[in-house]
Amino acid sequence: MATFLYKLGRLAFRRRHFVALIWVALLTLAGVGAASAPTAGASSFSIPGTEAQKAFDLLESRFPGMSADGATARVVFKAPSGEKMSDKDNKATVKKTVKALGDGSEVTSVTDPFKAKAVSKDGSIAYAQVKYKVSGMELKDSSKDALKETAQEARHAGLTVEVGGDALQATPETGSTEVIGIAVAAVVLVITFGSLIAAGLPLLTALIGVGIGVSTITALANALDLGTTTSTLAMMIGLAVGIDYALFIVSRYRAELAEGREREEAAGRAVGTAGSAVVFAGLTVVIALVGLSVVNIPMLTKMGVAAAGTVAIAVLIALTMIPALLGYAGRKVQPAGKKSKLLGGGRAAKKESKPNMGTRWASFVVRRPLAVLLLGVVGLGAAAIPATSLELGLPDDGSQPTSTTQRRAYDLLSEGFGPGFNGPLMVVVDAKASDAPKAAFTKVRNEIKDLKGVVTVTRPAPNKAGDTATITVIPDSKPSSVKTEDLVHAIRDDGADVKADTDATVLVTGTTAMNIDFSQKLNDALIPYLALVVGLAFLLLIVVFRSILVPLKAALGFLLSVMAALGAVVAVFQWGWLSGLMGVEETGPIMSMMPIFMVGVVFGLAMDYEVFLVTRMREAYVHGEKPGQAIVTGFKHGARVVTAAAVIMIAVFSGFIGSSESMIKMIGFGLAIAVFFDAFIVRMAIVPAVLALLGKRAWWLPKWLDRALPNVDVEGEGLRALDRKSMNEDDDRALARV
Predict the structure, then answer these.
(1) Per residue in 559-598, pLDDT tens?
(2) Which of 82, 142, 253, 399, CA to CA, is 20 to 30 A from 35?
């Protein structure tokens, strides 16, 4: 592989006009496609195989036109202090508002609070429920605007009016911190390279790669039902890996120049060596992201595949566009150790009288491997302790900022009717196989009324055929609580007894039940997903490092860092530690997809540093150095660059903590802290400590397996063979002249 990439790097350097033209054309094409594509909302939400989804599908067939998955808005009214909703003027305002709410072309029904008995016991709060034909993702802007304007008119009449439900979905805002993250990355690059031109190349190529990836996602969003979260995730990961991959190749290019190679040759060598690590690091990230499809949740699959596509683009750009831009930059990119004219007057840096920081740290770890190993493991273990109290759920209106109307509507409903009104359960009774459907409906209602944690159970509402009915259940606890989850399971358990007695099937659905099923499905898929991703990456790393113990150590180190990162997420977003600093207004359960998502993404990113750092050690060991010295050599050449790459990735991920979307905020924080733990504790401390303790055993591989594995030549041995061949040819020509 090294030889192929070496030739690719030289070709891109020579044919830089052609390479640059291709990438600019792709960026333009993607941009035009994104600009001309119809606007798409958030992706639709379905969970194949779950009870909640089966109930939705049953409602579609048995209640045609009901729009079971249609958007819902709850318009909540509160009377001025000292007044009641039943007062003449207030009642007239509500009646007028209800009439206006029903005028929309997408509205199927509107409930009158006074007819539906949707007025609180003290008479101060009431709500009207609006049902739409289409889901919240498909709702037209005109319908949303009409809803907002109607609520505003009621406010002008003197009432407090807020709108909850999924009809008004807030558009996530990332905020200025995203730009700050990129600015920090730029500063780190300038410090690392000592040159504005060299620092600008990784930023430029990363932005081009992300531009192509995100524009392509936008262009295909409507056709493939891709939501806004999909492009945000692709941008987050694409920026981080795009900068890192380019950073490693530019850094190696400058090192090759410092050894006296010509620029085209140095570009080829950089792509042949560092490029090999980029390919395998990118493959681990792609495997982890595409592997999310095993969960069988369409939304998660699309997010993973889209982000994986952006990573693949980042790899291709690093291998082709970076050497092309290095050709354009010419002498403006200086050899390692020489500063640019702007920052250092073009002078060579003073030779260091003592070893660099990476060398000193690695030498210390090699001398005290056991102490460093124990300290690292104990530290990460302590950080992981909060993960033992992990509670999973999906964010609802209660987790929105208090500045939003959705959150204020949620709080008003809780105040007037109890927290359970924000998460009603819909029970669907399928009595088609029953001899007495009405008796089955009544039995189900009576069974549910006797359950603990139930406030209200409505009368069964049968369809025209009389073989299916819906029953609404109001819990006494908020939607995301453990008590509500227990109630859902209790209703389902009682449903089994009802089926045995009446042949009627009981299904529980609604947004709350859907969230519970979603969390359960993710929990069930975590172990198979972990086995698949870690297993495939383990095999890939065996090929890269030609070792059994090094990949095993890499996988175990990853588990430590991801558990510590989950512990930090629980401490901030569930326990509330430093929540004010992070802009977390409401603590609660951790987003259901967070564990499996962190496993996938963090594993891929963790293997980046493993590959980049350990391949340098492997390269030194293969070329004759002792195991301990190879560790020091790997850190001498790689520690500074890996540190810069980790700081850049942390800065980029931290930029998304400023998002107004709780899901994006949590992902940004989780990935940033995971990269910190993995890069600076696992890869920089635990990995060299373990390798020092193992010695030569770290690179052991059974002979039969060594013969069976393909030789991918990540260390660039093929390039050394080219050197020897070139030297022999030069000697032959010299002898011929003599």
Answers:
(1) 899 899 999 999 998 888 887 777 776 777 888 888 887 8
(2) 142
> Looking at the DSSP assignment, which residues form a beta bridge with residue 428?
470, 507
Are β-strands 125-132 and 107-110 bridged in parallel, bridged antiparallel, or unpaired? antiparallel
Beta bridge partners of 127: 76
- Asked whether 126 and 86 are in contact (CB, 8 A), the reply is no
Contact 128, 101 (CB under 8 A): yes
**Residue 177 pLDDT exceeds 80:** no
Please identify which residue in the block is written with the tokens 């947004």.
511
Cα(422)–Cα(403) distance, integer angstroms: 18
Look at the block and give the residue holding tokens 């997408």.
Answer: 106
Q: pTM of whole model > 0.85?
A: no
Cβ–Cβ under 8 Å, residues 377 and 686:
yes
Calpha distance 489→498 (Å, rounded)? 14
Pull the structure tokens for residue 347: 């002078």
Cα 316 to its chain centre, rounded Å, is: 22
**Comparing C-alpha atoms, which of 388, 404, 386 is closest to residue 573?**
386
Distance CA 570, CA 56 (A): 32
pLDDT, one tens digit per residue, over 375-408 is: 999 999 999 999 998 888 777 777 777 778 888 9
Residue 508: which H helix or E strand, with range?
strand 505-509
Give, in order, the Cα–Cα distances in Å from 663 to each of 124, 479, 525, 671. Answer: 34, 17, 20, 12
Total Cβ atoms within 10 A of residue 368: 13
CA 71 distance to own-chain centroid: 26
pLDDT tens-digit readout, 335-376: 876 655 545 444 444 455 577 888 899 999 999 999 999 999
Contact 402, 414 (CB under 8 A): no
* Cα distance between the two ends of the chain: 38
Contact between 321 and 206 under an 8 Å Cβ cutoff? The reply is: no
Beta strands 468-475 and 425-430, pairing class: antiparallel
What is the residue type of 559?
L
Least Cα distance to 508 among 480, 477, 471 occurs for: 471
| Amino acid at position 94, single letter | V
Tokens describing residue 326: 């290095």
Residue with tokens 């930059």: 329
